């Protein structure tokens, strides 16, 4: 979950944890991933990156995952220098190191961490990952990079693959992921029996595809749902009346009020900002200012 992800503590009994929440991870491990990333939140009073139970006992011992475990990005990703290493979390992301690096070196030099038991295994897993990425130096001393020929060849082969094959898999995955809670004689839809269809929602004309931030993916193409649905329906009923309504607009940031801000008094036109001494709004206003827009 994303809500309060840095400080929420998920309370999950062991049976539910294993039968419900760990199941997708078990399925994912069948693909033999090179890395796994821990989450921000606590689970049963433990930060995931420092949890010996979740990472060492379940992930590594029970599920036999031998590759790299990395922290989530930045703030709250890696929460303890020593405990995360004891839990076999290998890598602090994204760098430069905050709780690893010099802090880990100091812990090793002061014998707070057993170098042979924990650090060496961590380094081995990281070296294996680097080797898979063909970034280790060759025997002649020259570094092998991702720009070398065999990597480019793999890229060319991927780009030359049948794009329609990817489309078929993506379409089937989308179909399999749909959940119909209740069907009151609505499905299946027969366009030839319809007179009017309304397509509602802003993303029907401006689809959000590929995610953003660390979840950003560049798709081969983006279909306009409004046009695609209309084409499918009209292919079976040329006389069908299809309408579109945007309804609630969407934006990553709330729109500013701009000139819509009301006049608070004849002397000022804008937003009045009151600043309080504390967070209870009961300790009195310490300052007031007027803003021409609501963009803070």
Automatic annotation (TrEMBL):
Claim: Repressor is one of the keywords in the record: no
Keyword Metal-binding: no
Pathways per UniProt: Glycan metabolism; cellulose degradation
An example Gene Ontology biological process: polysaccharide catabolic process
UniProt-listed Enzyme Commission number(s): 3.2.1.21
GO molecular function: beta-glucosidase activity
Biological source species: Colletotrichum siamense (Anthracnose fungus)
Catalyzed reaction equations: Hydrolysis of terminal, non-reducing beta-D-glucosyl residues with release of beta-D-glucose
Keywords from the named record: Carbohydrate metabolism, Glycoprotein, Glycosidase, Hydrolase, Polysaccharide degradation
Protein name as annotated: beta-glucosidase
Family: Belongs to the glycosyl hydrolase 3 family.
Residue ranges constituting the Glycoside hydrolase family 3 C-terminal domain according to the UniProt record: 178-235
InterPro entries tied to this protein: Cellulose_deg_GH3 (IPR050288), GH (IPR017853), Glyco_hydro_3_C (IPR002772), Glyco_hydro_3_C_sf (IPR036881), Glyco_hydro_3_N (IPR001764), Glyco_hydro_3_N_sf (IPR036962)
Stored Pfam families: Glyco_hydro_3, Glyco_hydro_3_C
Residue ranges of every copy of the Glycoside hydrolase family 3 N-terminal domain listed in the record: 11-74
